[in-house]
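Final report, section 2: Outcomes. Of the targets proposed, AcrR family transcriptional regulator is the one most frequently requested by collaborating groups, and we therefore present its record in full.
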Amino acid sequence: MTQQATSRREQNKLDTRRAIAQAALDLARKHGMGNFTAEQIAEQANVSRRTFFNYFHSAEDALIVSTESFLDQAVAEFAARPKDEPLLDAMIATLSATTKVENLQDCGDLFRMAAGNPDLLGTHLLAWERAEARIISAVEERLNGQASLLYIHALVGSVLSCAKAAMREWAAGEDTDAETLESHIVTALSMLRDGFSHPTL
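The predicted structure is given below as tokens.
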């Protein structure tokens, strides 16, 4: 098999995986969690039930692709920021990037859905844990031995806690568009950067 054929095959696999994940998200938005089956996801994605289970173990696994995609993009964006940029400024700039708005909306919607579904919540938290490990590695590489592991772990943990707090606030509010969620996250991270020195209402 030629390299071109292999690349095309891998791209087809990625396209199929994305189509299944999008079908799962569309059904979750339309019917709510727990109100659709793997068979319905497969039908929506125009694939067989067997194909669905070749890619995912459950509907929750398919749904979490959007969160993983957003977090993967955020990690890549952070790694590409200028090395002399202050860490928190780099993280704020990463999450402010307008190219992330679509995935951010999906991530926020799934965060809201997970609050009422233990299975999805567990999968969702696992995706964040994997992202945390990747962010820690990116920060370690960026600092190149100039900070302790405690500093790095505490910093990354604080950043992710702020992001989750912003998502909870957003999910409980009336304005549930991506721009509002982005604003909440940036505001929370700005509070962290400024040492929470200016309480807001």
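The domain at 3-56 is CATH 1.10.10.60 (Arc Repressor Mutant, subunit A).
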